[in-house]
Amino acid sequence: MEPITETVTVTCTCGEAFAAFTDRIDEWWPPAYSPDPDTLDTVVLEPHVGGRVYLRMSDGAEHAIGEVTSWSPGEIYGQSWVLAQDPAQPSSITVTFTPTGEGTEVTLRHDGWHDGNAAFREKFGDWALILEQYAEAAQA
Predict the structure, then answer these.
(1) What are the residue ranges in the chain where pLDDT is below 70?
(2) Where is the Activator of Hsp90 ATPase homologue 1/2-like C-terminal domain (predicted)?
(3) What confidence score (pLDDT) does residue 24 get?
(4) Which pLDDT score is estimated for 140?
(5) What is the pLDDT of residue 102?
(6) DSSP structure class, residue 131
(7) CA-CA distance, 109 to 5, in Å (whole number)?
(8) In angstroms, rounded to a whole number, what is the distance separating the alpha carbons of residues 90 and 79?
(9) CA distance 42 to 27
(10) Helix axis angle, 127-138 relative to 14-22, nearest 10°?
């Protein structure tokens, strides 16, 4: 099954773009993409391979998004993906950071689709909107 791929260009270095995506994810992740937008407190991304990525709600509850699988600052970030799908059948995202004349091309690839999780794929048509939120934060 084809991956979902979206690209945005930001006017900052690859290192700055990577840091905005990872270190500042709680600044740009849209609350609408959480189990309860009214109670989303923060998004936590533990910055290392094997680190957890999760949503923390105002009542202290945590909702897993995935686990970091690739960590190369300024180059590539990857994680398993379980938000809005069966955690036993994760998909994955990979984000690459490529220098361009204008700054950095950021490409998000959501793949790892197979018979066990293909039914969830249609839920993920808003990556372009989410990357727009990211781009605004990265360039701020």
Answers:
(1) none
(2) 17-121
(3) 97
(4) 85
(5) 87
(6) H
(7) 4
(8) 10
(9) 8
(10) 120
